[in-house]
Design brief:
Layout: E1 2-9, E2 14-21, H1 28-44, H2 59-74, E3 80-84, H3 92-105, E4 111-114, H4 116-122, E5 123-125, E6 131-133, E7 136-143, H5 155-166, E8 170-172, H6 175-180, H7 183-189, H8 201-208, E9 214-216, H9 221-232, E10 237-241, E11 250-251, H10 253-262, E12 271-275, E13 282-285, E14 295-310, E15 315-329, E16 342-345
Parallel strand pairs: 3-4, 3-7, 7-8
Antiparallel strand pairs: 1-2, 1-14, 5-6, 6-7, 9-12, 10-11, 10-12, 13-14, 14-15, 15-16
Helix pairs in contact: 1-2, 2-3, 4-5, 9-10
The structure holds adenosine-5'-diphosphate (ADP) and magnesium ion (MG).
Length: 351
């Protein structure tokens, strides 16, 4: 399961990719609910003729359908789906609905939730690499955690991850896809010619239009050039460490400060540099608890969900699984919904 995020870029007049999330891509459940809510609101406003502008959004059903297909592919009726969760799940109101949806679609499938510490205590591998947790065989592992060093408190959690990876359970994401979602790999994939290894020439051309400039900061002449470019015009770029979960990127003048400290050491290789995308600014209302409603300037970021099931050799399916829209104040760099800076929104299509 993955989510690709896009901004519409004003100068290039095309949607440009912010990044692809292959681990813990959230908001499938809430995005689907928001669509229903905005449809209801249009009804309340006595504007049913506008309903056709709101595309259907069944992200939750699509994502859970992917997990169910993986469970079927594993082929063991007694096995369960494991959600690898944080110690405290702040996104519980999104996450939990995946369990309910799996139960709704398939009452015969059971979901269990464990954090990495619990997996280290309760998990083991059989000699034929089946993953057993608390007596349950695991068919599918869905990582909602495990993308942050802080989620591995000690060697025990790393061991737990290794046990899961060595098992024959189907993982979402596989370790390969987890790595493919890192900023570094995304930057390497955007290099000229790399997409052509995986796609036909015409497909590669179309996909590469989605990429904005991505630059290595390796200790090389190419990396030196990128450092210089960022130091001269920091407002044009975003400096990204190999992190997930929001709130880690560096913007504007702070890029200079950070690069000044690390530009002569290998530490800079932990980052990549990216062109800053400038989305169109619109006026809208962000509705938040305990805050007065007022008209503000906002930008919107579109997320497209998908599911892929396959092996190293072939892809069984690759499907579109719905969308989500986040709208945030145009003045903030990152649109963290949980951080209170952004809001979930609906797409309104027009010619
Ligand atoms: P994470 O994986 O931590 O979520 P992202 O690369 O998705 O990191 O960045 C987080 C947010 O920062 C994005 O959702 C977007 O709002 C903003 N952002 C990231 N890259 C860019 C960019 N190149 N131009 C403009 N905004 C960006
Ligand atoms: Mg991400």
């Amino acid at each position: 399961m993955f989510r690709c995020d896009y901004f519409y870029s004003v100068p290039s007049q095309i949607a440009q990719q912010v990044e692809i999330n292959t681990i813990a891509s959230s908001f499938g459940a809430l995005a689907a609910r928001i669509s229903v809510m905005h449809r209801y609101v249009l009804g309340e406003l006595r504007k049913p003729e506008l309903l056709g502008h709101l595309p259907e959004n069944d992200a939750l059903a699509g994502l859970c359908g992917g997990m169910i297909a993986a469970w079927d592919a594993y082929g063991c009726p007694k096995a369960v789906i494991l959600f690898v969760v944080e110690d405290v799940t702040y996104n519980i109101c999104d996450q939990r609905f995946h369990e309910y949806e799996i139960r709704r679609q398939r009452p015969d499938i059971h979901v269990i939730r464990r954090n990495l510490t619990q997996i280290s205590q309760q998990g083991c591998l059989t000699s034929d690499k089946r993953l057993i947790i608390d007596g349950d065989e695991i068919a599918v592992v869905y990582f909602r955690a495990g993308y942050e060093p802080g989620q591995y408190h000690s060697e025990a959690e790393w061991e737990a991850r290794l046990t899961v990876e060595r098992s024959k359970a189907i993982k979402s994401p596989s370790i390969h896809y987890h790595l493919a979602g890192t900023k570094k790999v995304q930057q390497e994939i955007a290099r000229p010619g790399v997409l052509n290894k995986f796609l036909s020439d015409s497909e590669a051309k179309l996909v590469s239009q989605l990429f904005t400039g991505l630059y290595t900061l390796d200790m090389s002449p190419e990396g030196d050039q990128a450092v210089q470019m960022a130091m001269e015009n920091p407002e044009r770029f975003v400096l990204k460490p190999q992190r997930e979960g929001g709130g880690n990127n560096v913007y504007g003048q702070e890029i200079r400060t950070v690069l000044e400290k690390i530009k002569d050491s290998q530490e800079r290789e932990a980052y990549i540099l990216m062109d800053r995308i400038r989305p169109p600014i619109q006026q809208n209302y962000l509705i938040r608890a305990h805050e007065p409603v007022k008209l503000v300037e906002v930008v919107s970021e579109l997320g497209i969900f998908g599911t892929i099931l396959g092996t190293a050799k072939d892809i069984q399916f690759s499907k579109f699984a719905g969308h989500m829209l986040r709208t945030k104040l145009s003045s903030v760099n990152e649109g963290g919904v949980a951080a209170g800076l952004g809001a979930l929104d609906s797409v309104f299509l027009f010619d």
